[in-house]
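Input record, target 12 of the design panel.
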C-alpha cells in the first residue's frame, strides 16, 4: 500500500486541514499519516482560535513517521509560524522526503489569517525551495510573487515567476475566479492549463486541502505530475458536485462520494 503524510493543522469541524487530507487520502486507497502543526477551533462559519504545537513536538512526530513508515509523498498545508516552518524544512532535507506538495495556506475561506505575517518570509525562503509542487490560490500567488493577479495572463506570469524563483513546479489555482475553475501549471519552462467547469456551490471549505492531498496520492502511486493534477481535479469536482450541505457557512465536501463497497457497512 502506498503511503502519504500530511503536515497540516487540525480542523475540528472536519472540512479542511488534516481531517480533509486524511479523508481524501483514505478515499484514494492510500495509507494516511499526519504530523499536526496546530489545533484550530473552527467551523463552517469561521476560525475562533489557533493553538500551535511546539517545534519540539512537531519534530518528534516527523521523526516517528520517517524512521518507521516512510511516506511515498508528503503534503504540507497550514503551518502558522517560522519555527515550525524551519522544523519541517530540516526534516524534509534530512529524510530526503519524496514528492513534496506544498499548499501555501495563508488565509481561510472565512477570512482568518492562518500564516503569521512574519512567517511568510520563512515559508518562501525555507520551504518553497524544497517542494516539488506548490499550489497557491490567486491571493497566495499574488502575495508570493508580488504580481497583481486578476486575469489568466496574470496567473501565467505569477506561475512562471514563482517556478523560476523557487525551482519547483507551480499550480496557480483558479477557484477564486468568478466564472471558471481553471488552474495553471508551470513546470520545466512549460505552461499548461487544466480546465474545470465551475460548480455552483457555497460549500467550498477545504477545496485547496483536498486538491493538494489528492495530487500527493497520485504522485505516491507513481503517476506523472500532469496526470496527477488532472485526476485530482476530477476527484475534487466529484466531491463538490455531490451536493453535501452541512453547517451554516461554507460547508465541507463529500470526500467519500466515490466509495462503492457498501457491503462492509450500511446507512
Ligand atoms: N466552485 C468550484 N467549482 C469547481 N472547481 C472549483 C470550485 N472552487 C474551487 N475549485 C477548484 O478547487 C481547487 C482549489 O482551488 P481554490 O482556488 O479554491 O483553492 P484554495 O483557495 O486554496 O482552497 P481553500 O478554499 O481550501 O482555501 C482548484 O482546482 C479549483 O479550480
Ligand atoms: C487547519 C486548516 N487548514 C487549512 C484551511 C484552509 O481551508 P479553507 O480556505 O477552505 O478554509 C483551514 N481553514 N484550516
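The sequence produced for target 12 reads:
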Amino acid at each position: 500500500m502506498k503511503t502519504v503524510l500530511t503536515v497540516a493543522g487540525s480542523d475540528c469541524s472536519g472540512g479542511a486541514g488534516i481531517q480533509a487530507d486524511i479523508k481524501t487520502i483514505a478515499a484514494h486507497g492510500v495509507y494516511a499519516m499526519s504530523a499536526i502543526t496546530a489545533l484550530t477551533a473552527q467551523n463552517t462559519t469561521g476560525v475562533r482560535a489557533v493553538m500551535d504545537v511546539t517545534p519540539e513536538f512537531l519534530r518528534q512526530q516527523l521523526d516517528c513517521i520517517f524512521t518507521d513508515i516512510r511516506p511515498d509523498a508528503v503534503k504540507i498545508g497550514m503551518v502558522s509560524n517560522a519555527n515550525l516552518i524551519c522544523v519541517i524544512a530540516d526534516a524534509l532535507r534530512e529524510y530526503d522526503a519524496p514528492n513534496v506538495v506544498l499548499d501555501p495556506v495563508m488565509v481561510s475561506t472565512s477570512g482568518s489569517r492562518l500564516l503569521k505575517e512574519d512567517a511568510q518570509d520563512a515559508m518562501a525562503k525555507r520551504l518553497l525551495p524544497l517542494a516539488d509542487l506548490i499550489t497557491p490560490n490567486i491571493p497566495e500567488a499574488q502575495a508570493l510573487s508580488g504580481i497583481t493577479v486578476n486575469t489568466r495572463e496574470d496567473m501565467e506570469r505569477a506561475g512562471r515567476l514563482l517556478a523560476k524563483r523557487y525551482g519547483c513546479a507551480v499550480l496557480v489555482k483558479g477557484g477564486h475566479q468568478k466564472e471558471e475553475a481553471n488552474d495553471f501549471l508551470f513546470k520545466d519552462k512549460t505552461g499548461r492549463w487544466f480546465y474545470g467547469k465551475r460548480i455552483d456551490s457555497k460549500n467550498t471549505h477545504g477545496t485547496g486541502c483536498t486538491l493538494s492531498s489528492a495530487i500527493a496520492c497520485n504522485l505516491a502511486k507513481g503517476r506523472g505530475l500532469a496526470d496527477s493534477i488532472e485526476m485530482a481535479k476530477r476527484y475534487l469536482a466529484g466531491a463538490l458536485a455531490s451536493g453535501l450541505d452541512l453547517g451554516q457557512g461554507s460547508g465541507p465536501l463529500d470526500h467519500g462520494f466515490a466509495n462503492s463497497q457498501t457491503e462492509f457497512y450500511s446507512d
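The chain has a mean pLDDT of 95.
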